[in-house]
Amino acid sequence: MEVSYENEGYDNDYQSKSKGSILTRKNNTMPMWGNERTMNLNTLILTNIQSSHYFKVNLYELKTYHEVIDEIYYKVQHLEPWEKGSRKTSGQTGMCGGVRGVGAGGIVSTAFCLLYKLFTLKLTRKQVTGLITHCDSPYIRALGFMYIRYTQPPGDLWDWYESFLDDEEEMDVRAGGGQIMTIGNILKSFLFKLEWYSTLFPRIPVPIQQQMEKKMSEKYPPVVEEAPRRNLPEKNFRDRDDYRNRGDLSDTSRPRERIERRERSHRDYRDRDYERKSSHANSRERSPYVSRRDDYNKSSSRSPKYGSSKRRDRDDYKSRSRY
Length: 323
Hints:
There is one protein chain. By secondary structure, the protein is an all-alpha fold. Helix content is 45%, strand content 2%. It has a two-stranded antiparallel sheet with strand order 1-2. Helix 5 crosses helix 6 (138-151) and helix 6 packs parallel to helix 8.
């Protein structure tokens, strides 16, 4: 059963009423979403495009779709809206220095001039499909996807981009070089990021954005890494001498060698204390100064040479009476 798309339209929520694949619709006329005069471009960028010598002179001579494709093939080298070093925003603050495009302009890039030239040609669905499947240059494909992002209803963006999210073709998107991106990563940035190198894409309604995030999570489910399981040695609880090892089951982070070393050091300290106490007791019993030391401790006078004062007087009396 064939489905006709001759009377396709879009409701207030920008949801597509037609069904089926975007690339297989029979209606070759593409809808235009948003401002049909400015292509939803930033005002500053559009002004610089329309006033540039390249757009007014060089691109004015190109009248056909294939001539514009050849111009993209030979001239486009990045996807930024401004040429490198042409826009000075270092001394600006607030909105003038941000991505909203309010402030001093610069030299608009060849890529955005050709993008707006494609918009003036009013491309058909077949022509846009030829752009995004072109095999000569990745920049031709990238401008085709950017044309879709600026001109197509947000409800159709997922249908346009879904089959190309895994595309691994690479290109350098930064002016002057230095940032290699694949087609798939560029499309993911178009879908889920509003900013693109000092400019903004048209906003996507929140319900449609949530639907695309849900489809993205279904297409690329998050990978949960399981923690590695450790092989624990088997424990024999029948032996009563091994009762200390029962607590090791819950503590898997402590190796067995560390526990044995701790127990061995504990035993060594215990044996050393026992030997020290026993040797001290034996030496006290054998010492000839034990009784003298006890008398010294019991005396009221702490004289290390003569002992107590009464004993000293007695010894002095005996020595005087002897002579």
